[in-house]
Specification:
The complex is a heterodimer of chains A (about 220) and B (about 375). Chain A has helices at about 5-40, 50-65, 70-75, 75-85, 90-115, 115-125, 130-165, 170-180, 185-215. Chain A has about 220 residues and is mostly helical. Chain A has a single domain, classed as Orthogonal Bundle (MetI-like fold). In chain A, helix 7 runs parallel beside helix 8 and helix 8 runs antiparallel to helix 9 (about 185-215). With about 375 residues, chain B is an alpha/beta fold. Helices cover about 35% and strands about 30% of the residues of chain B. The longest helix of chain B has 18 residues, at about 205-220. Chain B has a six-stranded mixed sheet, with helices on both faces. Classes of the chains: A mainly alpha (about 220), B alpha/beta (about 375). The interface of A and B includes residues 125, 129, 132, 216 and 219 of A.
Chain lengths: ~220, ~375
């Protein structure tokens, strides 16, 4: 493979990592509080607000049931509004964030719901405010699950980021489609797939390791 | 113990706004006044009357047992005392403050004066022993330095200082409960609620935890409320006991009185659990309703008070009757003998009648179970 092509791969990998890193961070920023709220706002729970819970749940479901490629196209006007353009890696961050936020929210909800309700009651009986319960009990206790959830989200985002390539988002997916498919360069296609596999493996391994590190539950048995 | 002296001093004064003094006797730490708790119907489940017409006072500085089967209303009682729930009617007064009337910040402040330990310890798996103990102090907004000093003090108090940097998964049940106790005492509460705190522990560990609780009561003067379904726990520790059944208080009073003269069926069943006054199978399988020629009559004697230990000797001396001890279980509750004896006496009607009248005369309750060969 020529140095130019290798440069292209390196550049595309950088774009993909940039898109994934920014959208995963933003998705976590929005998704974590939404997930915590979803996990704590049913009837009788910490922030009991059943109506808000139901509405938010429906919005999350609606977003998650829209195929990503359709979401990307459907929100182009919004993307233009936010990013000033609908083309390129920067613009792709908008749909990636919008897709990852409800995904992360549901994962966070699941992880938080795993925390023993007895611990919430314990902290409450010590006079903890709901916010203290979230910060001192729910999030630290759910941390191993949260780390694995975010790992899953990042892996999914790597796949999504390849998809935005189809609509001019740049990155590895873009490279694979334009060079590997349209110019019929199987070597390039293979290289893109290999890089993606390596990235996913690395992310998953790092996530598993981190989750084990923060898990104090079984480690010492 | 230096923990003791600082106990009263540092309680936030606003924690318990005073209530009308004519309502609450000064010596009651917890007082239920005409309390009922009904959980409304929810998702097709009918409404539940968890507690009804509850009236009692738990004395300050003592250890009081609350005993009941599961479903008797113990959990509701706990949640009313620590302010996690409000009574449907009536008032719950804790340390001269009507906790059932407080809300928001006021109830959270009041909760910091109520320590609580749990059956399953409820320690945070993500925190070390020391950091678990620090949790209520962080919640109460103590400074880092104050927390560090207090945590060290508490680790010594529960005798587990060498485990301070261990995680709960590295600790035994007894060690976890010690951490739980230290955590409950962290904010220097006046009352400690123990919700089945020894139910998940083996007998030996239970013993050591109960000893620790007795120490804490003695040294710190903390009022302890033991919620349990285990008679043995109440017997070892409590001065007074409240017996709960189906949402009602069915008996209450001094442990010795209640358990030497149980009135309610549920109290009797708790008692038979520790005393095991069922007749052994080897005996009951041989029992016959008709006298057996040359056999023995089987008489069961309930021992409530005194003299059970000398009964066989007295029958022999005073009535010249040879009584065989077929089974016996006598225990001491609050300094009084409690238990039952199963005696075999010669099966002759006249002898049986003399024995029974002797027993009645000496205030033993006795019944003829049958005859054996």
């Amino acid at each position: 493979m020529s140095p130019e092509l290798i440069n292209l791969i390196i550049q595309a990998t950088g774009e993909s990592l940039f898109m994934v890193a920014v959208s995963a961070s933003l998705g976590t920023l929005f998704g974590l509080p939404i997930g915590v709220f979803l996990a704590t706002s049913r009837k009788g729970e910490l922030f009991a607000a059943p109506a808000a819970n139901a509405i938010l749940g429906m919005i999350v479901n609606a977003t998650r049931s829209t195929p990503f490629i359709i979401l990307v196209v459907a929100i182009i006007p919004f993307t233009r509004l936010v990013a000033g353009t609908s083309i390129g890696s920067g613009a792709a961050i908008v749909p990636l964030t919008i897709a990852s936020t409800p995904f992360i929210a549901r994962l966070v909800e699941g992880a938080i719901r795993e925390v023993d309700a007895g611990l919430i009651e314990t902290a409450s009986s010590f006079g903890a405010t709901p916010l203290q319960v979230v910060l001192k009990v729910l999030i630290p206790e759910a941390l191993p699950g949260l780390v694995l959830s975010l790992t899953l989200a990042v892996v999914s985002l790597l796949g999504y980021s390849a998809m935005v390539g189809a609509v001019g988002g740049g990155g590895l997916g873009d490279l694979g489609i334009r060079y590997g498919y349209q110019r019929f360069m199987p070597g390039m296609m293979l290289a893109v797939v290999v890089v993606l596999i390596v990235l996913v493996q690395t992310v998953q391994t790092a996530g598993d390791y981190l989750a084990r590190r923060v898990n104090r539950r079984l480690r010492h048995r | 113990m230096n923990v003791h002296q600082s106990l009263a001093a540092s309680r936030p004064p606003e924690a318990f706004p005073p209530i009308a003094s004519d309502v609450v006797a000064e010596d009651a730490m917890v007082r239920f006044e005409a309390v009922s708790k009904t959980y409304p119907a929810y998702r097709g489940k009918p409404s539940v009357k968890a507690l009804q017409a509850i009236d009692f006072a738990i004395p300050r500085g003592a250890i009081t047992g609350v005993i009941g089967r599961s479903g008797a209303g113990k959990s509701s009682l706990v949640r009313l005392i620590n302010g996690l729930e409000k009574p449907t009617t009536g008032r719950v007064i804790v340390d001269n403050s009507d906790i059932s009337a407080l809300s928001g910040r006021a109830v959270r402040l009041a909760q910091r004066s109520i320590g609580m330990i749990f059956q399953h310890f409820n320690l945070l798996s993500s925190r070390t022993a020391a950091d678990n103990i620090a949790l209520p102090l962080e919640i109460a907004g103590w400074s880092r330095a104050e927390i560090a000093a207090r945590v060290s003090e508490l680790l010594d108090l529960v005798d587990i200082a060498d485990k301070r940097n261990r995680y709960p998964s590295e600790l035994s049940g007894g060690q976890k409960q010690r951490i739980g106790i230290a955590r409950a005492l962290a904010t220097r509460p006046n009352v400690l609620l123990s919700d089945e705190a020894t139910s998940a522990l083996d007998p030996q560990t239970t013993r050591s935890i109960l000893d620790l609780l007795a120490n804490i009561n003695r040294e710190l003067g903390v009022t302890i409320i033991l919620i349990t379904h285990e008679m043995s726990v109440v017997r070892q520790l409590a001065k007074e006991v409240i017996v709960l059944d189906a949402g009602h208080v069915v008996e209450r009073g001094h442990v010795a009185d209640i358990f030497t003269h149980p009135q309610h069926a549920i109290t009797q069943s708790f008692l038979s659990e520790v005393l095991g006054d069922a007749v052994p199978v080897s005996l009951s399988s041989r029992l016959q309703q008709q006298p057996v020629p040359g056999g023995q009559a089987v008489i069961r004697v309930l021992v409530r008070g005194d003299g059970g230990d000398r009964l066989v000797a007295r029958l022999s001396r005073e009535l010249a009757i040879d009584a065989a001890m077929l089974s016996a279980r006598i225990d001491e509750i609050g300094g009084q003998q409690v238990g039952s004896l199963t005696l075999g006496v010669p099966g002759d009607e006249a002898v049986v009648a003399r024995v029974l009248s002797f027993l009645v005369q000496h205030r033993f309750s006795a019944e003829r179970l049958g005859y054996v060969a």
